[in-house]
UniProtKB/TrEMBL annotation:
InterPro entries: ATPase_P-typ_cation-transptr_N, ATPase_P-typ_cyto_dom_N, ATPase_P-typ_P_site, ATPase_P-typ_TM_dom_sf, ATPase_P-typ_transduc_dom_A_sf, ATPase_P-type_domA, HAD_sf, P_typ_ATPase. Keywords: ATP-binding, Hydrolase, Membrane, Nucleotide-binding, Transmembrane, Transmembrane helix. Its main location: membrane. Its EC number is 3.6.3.8. The keyword Zinc-finger does not apply. It comes from the Bacteria. The lineage of its organism: Bacteria, Bacillati, Cyanobacteriota, Cyanophyceae, Oscillatoriophycideae. This is Calcium-transporting ATPase. The chain crosses the membrane at residues 38-64, 70-86, 242-260, 272-296. Residues 357-379 are annotated as: Disordered. SUPFAM superfamilies: Calcium ATPase, transduction domain A, Calcium ATPase, transmembrane domain M. It holds the Pfam family E1-E2_ATPase. GO terms for cellular component: membrane.
């Protein structure tokens, strides 16, 4: 519980109070995805029907006394597990490094002095100082501000920064935090992850970690269950059909061989050999190698692949709908072309390419450009 502010003396929490609240509420960070162990990755791979097929074939060859074929098929299984494990561990290490680099620092007031601490150590009740260019470390109520505007596009998608105001003495901070949401001008609330683009202010933290607006989004995303990719569904369907066909042929060969030659053992072995020849033992290895190559090519384009089967899904995308503000774009305006008049001539300069085009004016309308000639004149 954070008590309402009764005055404007910004002394902040004491170091002892901050330490106690940190133990009580935990770090100001979102719960990260649990790392999958080697055993978990191996079980997920082995549970796929196409890998169960490899294992079954290897066991059958081993039972028949063909140790070489059995070791080859079982070796394929370990090879594929190794590729998946290497790719996933490499991606997780890269993501951890990015998290460490992007961990924000926070300027807080404790014991009456300004201190620069890690953003994850901010606690409820802390007084944070927000200045131009700072990322807000937690959801907070503004106690004092001057010309403060915040870019909340991370939460709202709106590219225009919003204007903030200071909380009034008669207003209840906890009630405001519970009722107000991101977006709109003249609100006394600032939110975790947003960016101060102008002015400065001092705010009292009301929520940290998963209790912030950003944390609520993260919590909702954790409820999303991963689905099988199209490739996984198709391979399961194909393996299922081929397995049924192979079993039917095996049964037919055993029955015909046994009835015609009265040798059921050799009939069973002949049917089993024919079924093994029909089953696609090479498909798992081919898929693993090509998907791993796809993940490697993505990494050359600065894209990390956490799950190898996703490579095929992303490659088959035809329409991709995303919120571009702050993700695909930087939410910043940039000059692309300059139109410069010199006497009766107009020159169009491309900023990306240092050359100009001479534009002639329309005889009927001097303000209208209707013809252009290439010119190598540089701005």
């Amino acid at each position: 519980m954070v008590a309402p502010i009764q005055n404007r003396q910004f002394n902040g929490l004491s170091s002892q109070e901050a330490s106690e609240r940190l133990k009580q509420h935990g770090y100001n960070e979102l719960p990260s995805t649990q790392h999958r162990t080697f055993l978990t990755i191996a079980l997920d791979i082995i549970q796929e029907p196409i890998f169960l097929l490899l294992i079954a074939c290897g066991v059958i060859y081993l039972f028949l006394g063909d140790a070489q074929e059995a070791l080859i098929l079982l070796g394929f299984v370990f090879f594929i597990i190794g590729i998946n494990l290497y790719q996933e561990q490499k991606t997780e290490r890269s993501l951890e490094a990015l998290r460490d680099l992007s961990s924000p620092r926070a300027l807080v007031i404790r014991d009456g002095e300004r201190q620069r601490i890690a953003g994850r150590e901010v606690v409820q009740g802390d007084l944070i100082v927000v200045e131009e260019g700072d990322r807000v470390p937690a959801d907070a109520i503004l106690l004092w501000s001057t010309h403060l505007t915040i870019d909340e596009s991370l939460l709202t998608g709106e590219s225009v920064p919003v204007r903030k105001r200071t909380i009034q003495l008669e207003e209840d901070p906890e009630k405001l935090s519970a009722t107000l949401r991101p977006g709109g001008d003249d609100l006394p609330t600032v939110y975790s992850g947003t960016l101060a683009v102008q002015g400065q202010g001092i705010a009292q933290v009301q929520a940290t970690g998963i209790g912030t607006e950003m944390g609520k989004i993260g919590k909702a995303l954790q409820t999303v269950e991963p689905e099988d990719t199209v490739l996984q569904k198709e391979t399961r369907r194909i393996v299922g059909k081929l397995t049924m066909i192979a079993l039917a042929i095996c049964a037919a060969v055993v029955v015909i061989y046994g009835l015609t030659r009265a040798d059921w053992l050799h009939g069973f072995l002949a049917g089993l050999a024919l079924a093994m020849a029909i089953l696609p033992n090479e498909i798992p290895v081919v898929l693993a190698i090509f998907l791993a190559l796809g993940a490697w090519r993505f990494s050359q384009k600065q894209v990390l692949t956490r799950r190898i089967p996703v490579v095929e899904t992303l490659g088959s995308v035809t329409v991709l709908c995303v919120d571009k503000t702050g993700t695909l774009t930087l939410n910043q305006m940039a000059v692309k072309q300059l139109l410069v008049y010199s006497g009766s001539n107009a020159y169009l300069y491309d900023v990306d390419a240092p050359r100009s085009r001479t534009l002639a004016r329309s005889p009927s309308s001097p303000d209208r450009v209707w013809h252009s000639n290439e010119s190598q004149r540089s701005l």
